[in-house]
Amino acid sequence: MQTTTPGADLAREIERLSHDGLHRPDEWLRFLAMDVLAGFGKHLEEPWSEYHHERLFGIAQLYAKRVLESPWSDILGSAYMELSSHGHRQWMGQFFTPECIADLAAEMTFAGTERLLEKDGSELIRVMEPAAGAGAMLLATCKAVDGHCGADVLRRFSFTAIDLDGLCAHMAAAQLLANAHIHAALGEVLVYHGNALTDERFQTVIHATALPLGDEQPPAVVPAEDPRRIEAVREAATSHFGEQLSLFV
What we know:
By secondary structure, the chain is α/β, with parallel strands linked by helices. It folds into two domains: about 80 residues, no CATH class; about 150 residues. The chain is built from nine helices and five strands; from the N terminus they run ααααααβαβαββαβ. Strands 4-3-2-1-5 form a five-stranded mixed β-sheet, with helices on both faces.
């Protein structure tokens, strides 16, 4: 029996749009991620034309529907891999961790989530993915924490994603924010475009924090480009080189 991936219908719609000949599938996928992020306040360098706005509205609605139906699933990464398998590999050469493997790795890493919650609540529990792709591992982490401790606990977590590929970084940012908006607030989401293992400057794609509940005192948040934060991220990436997920301070 043939199974469909979470992003299969989105990939088909993006491929249909690319038949206009104006943009490649990877460009439409980038536009979609940028459009999702614009909905959360990220500035677009130029407003969409009527042509783009009309088409992006349709695929954004489809993406939102899939996020609603499949919490914490890597829908954009799935669509990317579908498009790559349809002959677009010259523009889409990344290979992402399958969702089932990401789920297993996250379960193994965060099965003892309760012990992490013994930390002082004034500090967020920080999780980083230094080669984030479309965000599959961090999404799987959210799913594991949600499953073990409940969605409310995700407010205690800070998620940092980094990728050298700009499209991947934008997809990871869009997916984390879309799921946080629909399913459960995340304490902090920080996504960088850059190489975690070099001294090159990171570009901040998105930096968002959850609004405090009632009289709750929000944890202290260090600005995305604060040198102390960058140093901690690089140190964690170096010390956990070869690992997909790491906890860091």
